[in-house]
Amino acid sequence: MSHPYGGRSHYSVVIVGGGQAGLSLSHCLQQRGIDHLVIEKRSLVHTWRTQRWDSFCLVTPNWQCQLPGWGYIGNDPHGFMVKDQINEWLAGFVEHVKAPAIEGVTVERVFRVPGAGGREHERFTVQTDAGLYTADQVVVASGGYHKPIVPRLAEKLPTDVAQFHSAQYRNPAQLPEGAVLVVGCGQSGAQIAEDLHLAGRKVHLATGNAPRCARFYRGREVVDWLADMKYYDMPVTEHPLREGVRDNTNHYVTGRDGGRDIDLRRFALEGMELYGLLEGFDGGRFEFQPNLRDNLDRADDTYNRINASIDRHIAGQGIDAPPPSVYTPVWEPPEERTRLDLAAAGITSVVWCIGFSPDFAWVDAPVFNGSGAPVHLRGVTNEPGLYFLGLPWLHTWGSGRFSGVARDAEFLAEAIERRKTERRDARTEEMPLRGLHAA
Asked: Which UniProt keywords apply (predicted)?
């Protein structure tokens, strides 16, 4: 573990988290000459190396990879980088930024220390397993995906059933022979189910309320259309759901093999078994809600609604494009199956793809709502000098992605610089008063 700036313990800014968000902010602060320290629990950008399966690829086109001073540099801007390419690109970003960082250090608590001269003289203490640091300002850039979610019903499964969270899944060969139950059909669940399906495994998929979208429509990538429509510039404050959009499940689609739709109905035609929401396990049987048809219909409604918005854009702009279309279901559930016998189905493994929960218990500050999520406006909290960065929909759709974090980092860097200047000016104004009192 190396210590920037000769092992000093006080910094103007401490950034907790060395992923793309923390490094993006480091780049922006270096541009402003603001001293800072990045503290990373594992290694810089480690999540992309350690929590992605072997066939993982981006679901957004390469041209959207735009970190500060480090855009996509390959020859396939409309392609989708695979895992090794992503990590190679990120390794270049790490070298480009050269952040003052320490790795393998866990932040255990962040709290404000009262200052003798009032609020402007207060500091944050950053308590780690490698010692104490202090900072005038702190940025939490550790992401929002901390604890893999596995339901308590997992404890009821027989011990000979192998269980994995999506963060642990690597490839079909990792799982024992036999059928697999994949729980969850968001981006990870749908893609992992497809990965197993393409490998010839018998897959049972418990669906949820995840929406889906087209990969290509009317001659172009859907992301290209939405970019032209300024969807990715829409701030959360203008979204119809406002902050509620942060709780939405991501649309399932894939960039695999050049990009394509993921249609669970087509998987069903090919032999994948689909069910509604998993809600229990009892007597050797999984229990599901009878809502498979509703889940599929809602996903298709979103698919068609996005395409319809593109139709309106094309018509409004007078764009010459291939004709519009509406998705028609290729398969309908013949019945709602609410039970699945584990032994009879030959299920030997379960992959939980129901996401992660945030864990900010180590941030000792009154900035959280009743569900434990930070309350902020574009990453700025009501606790002066405390910020968040890299969270989904922090400001726009791209805030937690390669496409929008640079804009958010630049905004916070400006806020940090402004507060740093205000603190300095306040202290300067106080100096003559101190001299008067001394006289």
From this structure: Oxidoreductase
Q: Using CA atoms, how far apart are residues 368 and 382, in angstroms rounded to an integer?
A: 10
Given the DSSP bridges, would you call strands 36-40 and 10-16 parallel, antiparallel or unpaired? parallel
**Angle, CA of 264, 267 and 268, to the nearest 5°:** 90
Using one digit for the tens of pLDDT, what is the confidence trace for 205-220? 999 999 999 999 999 9
* Residue 270 CB neighbours (<10 A): 11
Q: Which of 237, 220, 378 is nearest to 229 (CA)?
A: 220
CA 188 to chain centre: 11
At how many degrees (to 10) do helices 83-97 and 20-31 cross?
30
**Adjacency order of strands within the sheet including 339-341:** 278-282, 285-288, 339-341
Same domain, 118 and 224: no
In this prediction, residue 204 has a pLDDT band, given cuts at 50, 70 and 90, of: very high
Q: What is the CATH number of the domain that holds 405?
A: 3.50.50.60
More confident residue, 6 or 233: 233
Helix 20-31 vs helix 405-438: angle between axes, to the nearest 10 degrees? 50
CB neighbourhood size of 214 (10 A): 21
Q: 297, 332, 355: which is the final residue of a domain?
A: 355
Query: 160 with 280, same domain?
Result: yes
Closest to 340 measured CA to CA, from 282, 267, 271, 270: 282
Q: Which pLDDT tens digit goes with each residue over 123-135?
A: 999 999 999 999 9
- In sequence order, the 6+-apart residues with CB closer than 8 A to the CB of 195 are 53, 55, 171, 172
Which domain covers residue 416, as residue numbers? 4-146+358-434
Instruction: Tell me how many domains the chain contains.
Output: 2
